[in-house]
What does this fold into?
Amino acid sequence: MREIDVFIDTEEIAEFFYQELIKRGFIPTEENTRELADITFEYLLKKDIITEEWDE
It folds into this structure.
């Protein structure tokens, strides 16, 4: 299996969730979508789909 660099932007994920929830008839708050983005990021980490790296 090869390794690739993927950059995850939680703000982009939050915006995606916001738009998708609106399409489905929900009225999410900004805080709701940020929480969903954080949960998604944590899920990807837990499943070893991504690893978190810090810029130095």
Summary: The helical segments are 10-23, 30-46.
